[in-house]
């Protein structure tokens, strides 16, 4: 199918917004695995900060692109007050508000936690950390909620929307953790890197199992029959996304079974692991691009 310039721009905005969600969720959770390296923590702070800022800007631009797409009046349609009000009062506006609020709170929580915001200096350490943690958790709730009221899953029962939110959280954690893991391969000696990757692997064993179960449950609600995976544009795009996800799962299994144990056996182990995680990051980018395409240009025929 042929995509218009508006759709391509909207897909790009969604990609950056999804990347921002991944950084906002995966960065802080991965930082918990190695809290003794200040260099690593500083890199994670920048990673989360940039993710929050890019996500915030991409969410706003994406909303106005949808206004222009609805107005069908060229670039001037982007600023159409009529269609802006129509879209803002719809579920698209609800999702945009939730996403913007979530990204803004991620940035605020980071500034409070690192004492980079002047107002944060009025609070003592324990209170400041509590405020930062509470703001961050609320930000995650807003970000996850932003995926539920619109798109192809808006027609689902609230229990399935909750399942979707959990699925999105785990996907964001997985994809968002790849850059920190890639980075830590360059910062830590092999024995410490082995400990971090071993703890991550134990966590991933549970999280990925829940992720797969949640994704399968939501997919069953979106497709009326298995034939729709082949006969519809949405089904074929979904299969492409599934292929990339399976590739990431196989790489993750390869890391757990082969590359992580090799860290204690070979001096080249860290380099091979970093290279493999880098390849997994590229597949993760493909997953986000296909997801942005799925939520922009195609939709399931069943139940819509």
Structure in a nutshell:
The chain is mainly α. The protein is built from 10 helices and no strands.
What key attributes describe this structure?
single chain; 304 residues; mainly alpha; 10 helices
Protein architecture, described:
With 304 residues, the chain is mainly α. The chain is 77% helix and 0% strand. The protein is built from ten helices and no strands. It has helices spanning 5-31, 38-71, 81-88, 91-113, 125-145, 158-187, 190-222, 228-231, 233-259, 269-294. Helix 4 (91-113) runs antiparallel to helix 5 and helix 6 packs antiparallel against helix 10. The radius of gyration is 20 Å and the shape is globular.
Poorly predicted runs of 5 or more residues? none
Dominant shape: globular
Termini Cα gap: 20 Å
Strand coverage percent: under 5%
Largest sheet: none
The number of helical elements comes to 10
List how many beta strands DSSP finds: 0
Name the helix and strand elements from N-terminus to C-terminus, one letter apiece.
HHHHHHHHHH
Helix content: over 70%
Question: Mean pLDDT across all residues, rounded?
Answer: 85
Give the helix/strand class.
Answer: mainly alpha
The Rg value, from CA coordinates, equals 20 Å
